[in-house]
Amino acid sequence: MTDPDSKTDHQPTATPRANAAMRRPKLFRWFVVSVPILAGLIAAVAILVQRDWIVVDRQSGSLQLQNPPLYLQEAGSELTGHKYLYDELLGWKNIPDWKATTHNRELTINSKGLRDREYEYDKPDGVRRILVLGDSYVWGYGVADHEVFTEVLETRLAGDQWQVINSGVSGWGTDQELLFLTDEGFKYSPDVVILAFFFFNDLQNNSSSRQYGLYKPVFVDNSLQPANVPVPKPDSGRAEIYGTLSPIEITARLIHRIADTCEEHQCRFIVMKFGSFLEPDNQALQADGAAMREYLIDHTNMEYLDLDAEFSANHASVTSLIEGNLDGHWNVFGHQLTATIIHDFLTRSGYVDADSQQLIPLSIAD
After folding, report:
1. Percent of the chain with pLDDT over 70
2. Which of 15, 43, 182, 184 has the most CB within a 10 Å radius?
3. The model scores a pTM over 0.85
4. Nearest to residue 292, comparing CAs of 250, 257, 262?
């Protein structure tokens, strides 16, 4: 018989309920400490993503740290809402993957910083490409994405055989367009490059390192080596740099350089000049246009399209071209007419077959 008073080393075993009760305080303490830390990390990541310090890599889908972008506001941005991205080569450029409005009309910038749909650098087989360089008129200031003349022109060319790529950036001069073409534009392997040359103010834009309150590159002499690069950031206090050549001379040299590089890349080059349509009775403006034409027409790889003369031939008044766009940019009709004029020019100049709409395979020398 067992002695009830006898002592043994046996200890009672804890029940599952008792073990769970013992764990609850530890779990609670872990929860109290960890949740705020986790919430803080999530909030910090969200702030970094919102400020573009962290971006998602398109190839791997992973998060990557980057230097924060510097956004630039254009003059009058309180009305337009437009803004741009600082760039040390170009001064400013479009913000990739940006959606906004221009005068309450849809404005979409693709992943490569073009106001256009997405394009791969590699050109698809059987496709011809037109790359359009320019400023706010090409960018489409005041009209919706599908209303820009580059989009209208693409629909008027045959089906999916042509791609018209819009590389315009508001405020750019010919110097910035040349730098973009050599640094980025030729990656698209264009068959034709069109320079939309707004000589109403491009001559002045090409003569200085500061425009619209922003710093930019400038070519100061015959060597065409860019000065003011890397472009200073805003409020850096850098003195403005001016070129030693006249505005017409430096602009003509820039356009000849574009023609030369297009010839090297076996693509055709068209200068589309416009600007006097805004002031058709301005004799000084007419003289500048005539002087520019004399500088340009002697290059073997250059076609010259006088858009002002075409507007006049089509009886398009300044009112009909800009009505509703009070800042002087083309309205929907202006873009439609421009697309029609370019299409007709491509056809009658032997770039496009009138029936098949195919690019006629002529050599550059022809």
Report:
1. 75
2. 184
3. no
4. 250
